[in-house]
Amino acid sequence: MSVTREDVLHVARLARLRLTEAETEQLAGDMNQILGYMELLNQVDTDGVEPLEHVIDHEPGLRADVALPPLPHEEALKNAPDADADHFRVPRVIE
Amino acid sequence: MQPTDIRQTQRLISKGDHSAEAHVSRQLDLIERENPGLNAFTSVAAAQALEQAREVDLKQREGTAGRLAGAVIGIKEAIVEKGRICTSGSKMLASFESVYDSTAVERLRAEDAILIGRLNMDEFAMGSSTENSAFGITRNPADPSKVPGGSSGGSAAAVAAGLCHAALGSDTGGSVRQPASHCGVVGLKPTYGRISRYGLIAYASSFDCIGPLTQSVEDAALLLSVLAGHDPKDATSSRQPVPDYASLSETLSAGIRVGLPEEYFGEGLDPEVKNLVMQQVEVLKAAGAVPVPISLPHTPYAVATYYILATAEASSNLARFDGIRYGHRADRGKMLEELAAEKKQLQKNGGNTATVDSALIRLYKQSRTEGFGPEVKRRIMLGTYVLSAGYYDAYYGKAQRIRRLIQQDFLDAFRSCDVILSPTSPTTAFGIGEKTDDPLQMYLSDIYTISANLAGIPAMSMPAGLHPADGLPVGVQLMAPHFREDLLFAAGRELERAQQSAG
Fold first, then answer.
1. In chain A, which among 44-83 make CB contacts under 8 A with chain B?
2. Cα–Cα distances in Å, from B466 out to B156, B268, B449?
3. For the sheet containing B459-466, what is the strand order?
């Protein structure tokens, strides 16, 4: 299976990235090389093997349902690229 | 000569031979002199460090100083500190000022550590050479034409050059151990969940571990005793009790079985690296340990398995960087102009203007495109691809199953041995620029470190001597069963004692 230019552009759209022509070519090459290497895994018989999701088995301890002080409003907005007193500002969505 | 480790510095301070303030000001001088060439620190908190040192001196006189009084510690850019710029090596976070402390930093502060500055890294911890930072490359103190390893390259270089006693790094596929090996210091990746990840800027959450880089094994044990423990803010942090690692690991139990995995000593391993690593086996043998040949048969699949799972997790974790709440945002005026021009062009050519992005979607795309560097984009693309419709089972599902087989290899091996010993890296530090054009070769440099992250077990790299040809540091890696960091420290201290008495 080989990754085409169109595949790269499709994945870039999903990942919310814009690629130049040169980057698209480069990534198609890199992805083919790396995904090609990953074909190695097809040598391994994994029938009946459970996927490993958590490396450590531990009790899913829940914390007490007690409200803790939230991040103060002005701190939450402190790193916003664009904000007014109460909100993050974004470009108009409904035109 | 100023001592370079925590324990010796503390002994001098508590005898009254030394003040923390004088110590910190000498460290600051050293940083000023050495850092421009190394670029290990991205920012230095001189005024705050001196202020903290004066507090430590006061507490010392009052007898209320904490366990890390006098320790001068640098923090990897991925681990947040309140009130400081925390970039994770990315242009995306170039001006991001954290509004809270990570749990690890909070615990260091509570024991009176002096936090002297922030350390360079590969962008979002993606890399093995610290060449992927938006803030310049870091150089290896042993040879400035070589990389320090990565992603915690700034942490390893700073400790190796004596700019700080210890540093925090993070290890997702070897990012503490491989740079520790290349720079000649001790680097510990604890058991997954042993140290809280709260405030560690996420790369691949099922792998990410915070770990210390130190001058000595004893310092690593001391730091783990402070850093480990359950944190209600990280549901994956373990509730296992935290032992006093330093006192627990003073002696190596007689007859301890040291497993030597055949897959870690084969093709691709530099013969001189192998020789130095095997000398460490002899040292342990002389101390009563018993070497045992073992096999970890799924080792050849570790790198491929890791790069599927880690990139998948990264693509999901890094979706948060959208230019809305924090981080880099593209210039809005310029973006709107471009969109209008694209629409006009399409109208002129009779194209469908519905294919043009909405302003919000374009803002996400443009901000991410400008904020992320090439390696981060490559991993987001790979991760998005392996998770996309039609490929999920073939890649992600398959890799999760092989991850279990790799973990099972270790569980089986630990029935016939107590610790596993191997090289940390197949070669010494490579040259700057040597692997930047070949991502797969760069990924394969993590070949001996990645499996411990896949299995979630603790592992530590420590110096094994200098390579006779290039004079660069070689590291030996020790691995132990889940939550048995004490075995790593006991074996490590035995090796350290032998090195000290040898010279």
1. 44, 46, 49-56, 58-61, 63, 71, 75-76, 78-82
2. 16, 19, 20
3. B41-44, B114-119, B72-76, B166-171, B209-214, B186-189, B459-466, B473-479, B419-423, B257-261, B290-294
Q: What is the pLDDT of residues B176-201, one digit of tens each?
A: 999 999 999 999 999 999 999 999 99
Residues of B in contact with A52 (CB under 8 A): 400-401, 403-404, 407
B6-240+255-259+416-502 has which CATH code? 3.90.1300.10
Report the length, in residues, of chain A: 95
Q: Which two tokens stand for residue B471?
A: 């004079």
pLDDT number for residue B4? 81
User: B405, B409, B421: which is closest to B459 by C-alpha?
Assistant: B421
What value, to the nearest 5°, has the Cα angle with vertex B298 and ends B294 and B301?
A: 140
| pLDDT value of residue B305 | 98
Q: How far is A63 from chain B (nearest CA, A)?
A: 7
Known catalytic membership, residue B82: no
B76 catalytically annotated? yes
How far is C-alpha B91 from the geometric centre of its chain's CA atoms? 20
Q: Do B6 and B185 meet the contact criterion of CB atoms below 8 Å apart? A: no
A87 Cα to chain B: minimum distance (Å): 10
Does B381 contact A46 at a Cβ distance shorter than 8 Å?
A: no
Q: Specify which residues B118 forms β-bridges with.
A: B43, B75
Please calculate the CA angle B415-B413-B484 and round it to the nearest 5 degrees. 75
DSSP codes of every residue in B411-426 = HHHTTT-SEEEEESSS
B225 among known catalytic residues:
no
Catalytic residue chosen out of the listed positions B90, B175, B196, B451: B175
Helix (H) or strand (E) holding A24: helix A21-38
Between chains, do B304 and A37 touch, taking CB under 8 Å as contact? yes
The complex's ipTM works out to 0.96
H helices present in B65-209, as ranges:
103-110, 153-160, 177-183
Q: Do B366 and B322 touch, CB atoms closer than 8 A? A: no
Pick from B96, B365, B382: CB nearest A18: B365
Determine, for residues A34 and B372 on separate chains, whether the beta-carbon distance falls below 8 Å. no
Contacts with B454 from chain A: Cβ below 8 Å: 55
Domain boundaries, chain B: 6-240+255-259+416-502, 302-392
Å between B205 CA and nearest CA of chain A: 10
pLDDT digits (tens, 9 = 90+) for B369-428: 999 999 999 999 999 999 998 899 999 999 999 999 999 999 999 999 999 999 999 999
Angle at B67 between CA B501 and CA B49, to 5 degrees: 100
Please pick, among B128, B151, B152, B225, the residue that the annotation labels catalytic.
B151
Between helix B302-317 and helix A21-38 the angle, nearest 10°, is 140
Contact yes or no for B338/B363 (Cβ under 8 A): no
Residue labelled with tokens 């923390």: B20
**Range A5-43 classified under CATH 2.40.128:** no
